[in-house]
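Lecture 7 notes: from sequence to structure.

We start with a single chain of 163 residues. Read the sequence below before looking at the structure.
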Amino acid sequence: MAELSLRDVRAGYGETVVLEDIAFELPERGALAVLGRNGVGKTTLLATIMGHTTFHAGSIEYQGKPIAGLPVYERCRLGVGLVPQTRDIFPSLSVEENLTVAARPGRWTLARVYDLFPKLAERRGHWGNQISGGEQQMLAIGRALSKGSRPSSSRSCSRPCSA
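Now the structure, written as tokens:
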């Protein structure tokens, strides 16, 4: 069974179709690179998987469950996560507060995130705007994991990123 599967997906913004007949299967622990010039739909693809676009046709399955009709918050509860290039951390919260503000019980505890990113443990008391860009990216990934996202899905980025 594929971790994530898209079949004949058509989606976009309102009546405007940006993605047409997109299909792929991503196996568990698999990786997928989406490459292309500006404006070809890379970000729209990720936004569609998350539920931020108008879905016109096709199917999206996550761990064998159809998710195309689910709202964003239900997809998040299933473990689908997105770490955008902009990171979207809270600059006026500490590193630790950023990690715990939306944390949910699950495999990714605060201690486990700190084990994955020891630099964040060292900087736990610093404000979000006091850490480097790389540390902010770690923080964004750690926050996605602590919200219940699975590692393979939370490393989806709208531009090249290190995960």
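Residues 120 and 132 are 11 Å apart (CA to CA). Keep this in mind for problem set 3.
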